[in-house]
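Dear colleague,

Following up on yesterday's call, I've attached the two folding results inline so they're easy to grep. Please treat them as preliminary; we haven't cross-checked anything against experimental data yet. The first protein's sequence and structure tokens come first.
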Amino acid sequence: MNSLINYASCGALWLGLAVKAPDLLRHRHDPYLRAICAVLGLAGLCFLLGAPPTVGAVNRLSGVPNLAAPLTYAAITGYCAASQVLVVHWRGGPRVRRTARRWTLAYAAVVLGIAVTFALGDAPVERRVDLDTYYATTPFIGQMILLYLLAHLTAVSVTTVSALRWARQVRGALRAGLTLLGAGALCGAGYSLAKLVAVTARWSGRDWSALDTAVSPVAAGLGALLIVVGVLVPLVAPRVSEWRRAARAYARLGPLERALDDLLVRRALRLPRPRFASPATLLMWRRTSIHNALGHLDAYGDRDLYDRTRADALAATGDPELAGARAWAAVILDALRQEAASGTVPPPAPGTGRPPAPAPDPATLARIADVLAGAERAPAVCAVPRRRTTAGTA
């Protein structure tokens, strides 16, 4: 079970790293991005090195019993340093670089302490799961365990307080991400506390190793999941919002495209529908099809009809935008009927009349689609005799 939690957590963290890596490649000198990627990468390495099968492989390949322990503790300490640097960059201020350097040097000293205490100590019996409690009373090895646990607890505690405090000052996706990140760091604190309690109990002769072997891995795994989601939410949320807006705009234009469908098919004006495309790409495809159809109807547009319909709608609603949409809808429906009835007769020469209005922009196209869908009252095309004029609609 521990192995599954470790490898799943490592995969989740490195998945987050893979998502952030392109941003880091584009902005290599951004210290904030470097800190985020370091946090994700080192946290994943901690879980990878701490998995029992990995522990066994490292010990066997190195020929040193329990060498995997100081390597894992060094990775955890590196993660702690990256977390503190990230917090420093979050806070900002005039002394960001100096403070970040101090945290880095402090945790480098912790890594050195881990290496020295492991070298001075004696841990001949391999322990893949419960090394912390098994060697809690062993000279130097016990100090090594206590050193990394206190360093980790300090880092996650500061991260928790900083993330949750900042979350109260912002809104939206950033607030959600910070809240999740703070919750994940809090779970990391639960990991350290569970191990510290188990180690302390060992000092007094009690066996609470279940806290070390069962509780702390669950807390660490949950913390990893929350941290990954917290980091990704502010990144993914704007893209999801953009896709939702594009999907709504795409669906909203459906009635207008369906009104033009016969023309698009007969005149082969519709481009092939893209496969496996994003909502933004599909929206562009639909708008292109609509503009192709309107361009073909250019010579059939009627300025008089547009002016009359717009004036009537404006008098009835007092809304210039709605009046313009109703007028465009009337012109388009009239042009479609004339184009379909023209058969093989050539259309009127383009450019012989004034266009009804500037070419519809995306917002106007959406309002025209609303009129055709019945969301707004569809205009009736005037049937009284009128002088033939042409109008561009491209």
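Below is the second protein, in the same order (sequence, then structure):
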Amino acid sequence: MVVAASVVVAAGSVAGVLSAFDARRGPDRAERPAVPASPRLAPLPAVPSAPPSVTEPASPTPVTSAPATPSPRPSPSRTREKRERTAPVSARLYRHPDSQVLDWVRAHAGDPRQAVIASRIADQPAAVWFADYAPDTLTARVAAVTSGGAALGRVPVLVPYAIPGRDCGGHSQGGAPGLDAYDAWIDRFADGLGSGEVIVVLEPDSVAQAECLSPGERADRFASLARAGRVLKAANPRARVYFDAGHSGWNAPGKQAAWLRQAGAASPASSDGIFSNVSNFHATADEVAYDRRVLDALGGPAGLGAVIDTSRNGNGAPPDGMWCDPAGRKLGRAPTLSTGEDRIDAYLWVKLPGESDGCKGRPGTFTASYAYELASS
């Protein structure tokens, strides 16, 4: 990403990165269960540390692996997460059975880190990314995830990540060859959504990182995103679609809201709200406050809400601005559809903890040492 971008690592494949991490539910916000507090992760059991000599095995290569991009100026977090206490796995969110972390857990039963990684990361639902431009197989791959969730009565979280000019030509560059091709790709994506509840985190960084585009290019991209939201919601009225709000250390709320409005995020025909902090580290409290300011500036129906990526933000953003697998980070709040926070619809794990930004392992690949560090901090 270019300036203060949310470090996105699209290690998604057909089955994608772990599974639905959080997500919203159906189109009726009144259906959200009310709870007094959001789930938190339990204290770690005593387990042996991995010996320094352990060599990381190569992780299976996903269909798509878009490397991370730097975030040159993330702001330090103003608040810290309180100590995590409980970690119930959400019964409402879908954990897809194919992911790099699950592959590692199954193959390394004797590794001293396996129990911690399995219980604190692999058991949690996380998002499934679709970051490759492969239209011929796209509908079937999306349908495999949505039908799997529907069969269990659970909500999958999907991340389409193929906007042309993705990452402004940076490390995660790629996507469809043009907006016409992207529109057709979204049509095929929508054909796989089925009729069950599903959450769509639409194109991370596509709005917040639009500064690199000319005014005309930006207008064209935003029109295509607005169309994408309409197509997705028309294909499945129970789909909940969220638009890119960057994160609390990036654009000012008013500027971000103005762009979001142009991209269709204020229209109920396209949008259910916004998402923030994807693949980044900003503290949940900072994101809650920021997202509410963006929603206030955005306008639109009162029912618009926000979802927040809490996968790696347990210690907030590193004060030195490090973006690539920074040390001292830890898992954030467990994925849930019940946050107990007004206008905050879900805490999700969009970025799968343990998939490297490119410093502790190859970009987008699962790195056990990094996963264990996050889970045991």
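For the second protein, one point worth flagging: Helices lie at 100-107, 114-122, 135-152, 179-191, 215-235, 253-262, 284-298, 368-376.

Best wishes,
A.L.
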